[in-house]
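Researcher: Structure prediction, please.
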Amino acid sequence: MVGSRLVKGLGENVKPRGSMILCTLCVVTYAYVPVAAEVMSEEQVERTNRRLSHFSFGFALDSLRGSDGIGLSVLSPLVWSKSLGFRLTAQFQTTYGVPVWDIVEQDFPYVVGRIGVVVAASIVDPPVLRQYIEGGVLGIIPNHRLSDSNVQIGVYGMYGIEAVALTSSLNLGVHLALGYSLCAARAEKLVGSPLYARGALIESGLNLYF
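Model: Predicted structure follows.
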């Protein structure tokens, strides 16, 4: 009986642990805009537009339904008036819970792969601030300590804002995105068999353009 109460209490208090880092990055994103909005010459504006249509490599921190992680992504060159591209992302997540064989909360890593369509548009010209929407398919590779299921398939969508600063040697964007992940992944080996990798998605990070 005591053990049951302990397990219940631990399960109810499982919370993401990357919230402070995400909040800090969100503040940095918006504080970065005035720096990026420095007056540009016509040549700089043209160069910025050209670079933003090239492919980019991204790094992000994210929070997804009680789990925290890091993401690595590649965005294809933009086509269709430099507004449409495709992004491939790998998220390395960690969720927290109490396994059925124990009474102590533990960490459980798992991997999420995403492939999506990105549609971007400038908010401020020259393009130092732009918005984008992204949506597509995701696949979850479960940890065997979470579930014996095979790869779980789902969908996701998000809306983001990116602040951009380009120099002669550095092409950098800082982004913040909010979205939602929808899938049926369930952690059968945790107390209560909770869903995971499903729900609100918060992401903030850096994009490097080439």
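Model: The longest strand covers residues 106-124.
Researcher: Thanks, that helps.
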